[in-house]
Amino acid sequence: MLDLKFLRQNPAAVADGMARRRFPFDMAAFLALEEKRRALLTAVEQKKSQRNAASAEVAKAKRAGSDAAHILAGLGTLSDDIKALDETAKAIDAEVAELLLGVPNIPHATTPDGAGEADNPTVRTVGTPRAFPDFPAREHQDIGAALGLDAERAVKLSGARFVVLRGQLARLERALAAFMLDTHIAAHGYLEVATPYIVSDESLIGTGQLPKFADELFKIEGAPAYLIPTAEVPVTNLHRGETLPESALPMGYVCHTQCFRSEAGSYGKDTKGLIRLHQFGKVELVRFVHPDTSYDELEKLTSHAEAILQALELPYRVVALCAGDLGFSSAKTYDLEVWLPGQNKYREISSCSNFEDYQARRADIRFKPEGGKKTAYVHTLNGSGLAIGRTMAAVLENFVQADGSVVVPGVLVPYMGGIGVLEPEGKRA
Questions:
Q1: For a Cys-Cys bond, which of 63, 90, 278, 288 suits 251, CB 3.0-4.6 Å?
Q2: Could you say which residues bind L-serine here (predicted)?
Q3: What is the pLDDT of residues 93-122, one digit of tens each?
């Protein structure tokens, strides 16, 4: 969440950040609460001063042997008044805290202005999209149907927006996950963790999914718990409520999980294939870093995700999200978009974000500077490295052959047990 002290001292800067986001933050309502809170604090201090004076009068009367009953009665009334004022102040503090949970992060100064996706500038484009001179490009769900992508049986099992993968496609999914994990561990120094797929509401509050995005989550009936929408949630919350030594920073984790999203508001979008599912695999990168280096770390994190696309020889581009398209908790985000020839466009395959101290404040994740006494909040970053289903879709569309077979990218062949070409199921020996 936002730093309340910063918000109190810099309301104009916060209002400007919310305006860049096109977020309707009611600054007047916040300032009215602040005025009420300050008035209460002043009243409490006045009452406490009166109580101290009355206590001194009681002591004086007792030394003089005088009757202090009337003063004691007044003291009781003052104590009751102070208690009532304190309770009102606590209620306002709770209201402010609840309000802050629904306020997004302030965009970083280098986040471009803009209203939405159409305003996101391209930072760089890597690779050349493949030409299809001899046969038309095809969408991955059509290619995959002959290779073991079974949507019909998935509907029978679970409903829409699920898939079943058979044979070589199931192995390709496993190969992609293993290759991504191995690359991030060996080449980039991440520590692999395996986490639960069910998390508490406190964990989702910590990373910013709750209360804002409750309708996009799968809730466990009868419990304050949810299926994870991304590994970002459990991995970031590994250090919730902790104070890390400065020497431990930067700290990087990689985690492969299934992710579960209700896809609220996406009715009719990407209903076929692997692009927008209720359940999908993802390899996630999470970093805890020093505030002074977090933007250098964002560039590094983004390069780690790009390295997977480069190794798979998939054309892609990097775009900087404008303020109006920025994720709720992020101060700056790069999206990686892979080229899908069947759709004739780039599609998001990873978002790499710097949340600064926004998540760390919500989850109370601090570090202790070496030689310093006062703790500070870490900066958290995360990015997909990569979304596995979308990566599979890109492999199918970019490496399909005229006969419907698909060439396996060279780096994946060892993970496929030496299989270099995926053959349609009817052609396999």
A1: 288
A2: 230-232, 261, 284, 382, 384
A3: 999 999 999 999 999 999 999 999 999 999
